[in-house]
Amino acid sequence: MYPDYDFSAVNAHQFFTEESWDSFKQIFDAYMFEASKDWFEANEGSTLLDTLYKALDEVVKLAECEVYSYFPDSDADPFWERGAINLVAEGFLTDGIGYEEDGEIFDEMDM
């Protein structure tokens, strides 16, 4: 019915138990940070995460749940598509470092 959520081809070793709801909640809060800011602005002070956790807790009683993380290999990942390109971007924020000196390094290069 929902092919993106078909886990019939996965193995148990691709799931890991989280230590506690609180440890998972910290990770989830970090992922949802930007969406939370947008929600806060649009909903006059109501927080997305509090609203979400309250709705989930009413249905599944979060304190009574075991939380698992799923780390698939590419063959079993329902979201992986053949030919998809994964990009990883890393950046560093630096204060007070000038990049003018770097220009001299590249002056003689044909770019």
Automatic annotation (TrEMBL):
The UniProt entry's GO biological process terms, in alphabetical order, are: negative regulation of transcription by RNA polymerase III
Would you tell me the Gene Ontology cellular component terms? nucleus
A Pfam match:
Maf1
For this UniProt entry, the molecular function terms from Gene Ontology, in alphabetical order, are: RNA polymerase III core binding
Q: Which Gene3D superfamilies match?
A: Repressor of RNA polymerase III transcription Maf1
Know the name of this protein?
Transcription regulator
Source species of the chain = Actinidia rufa
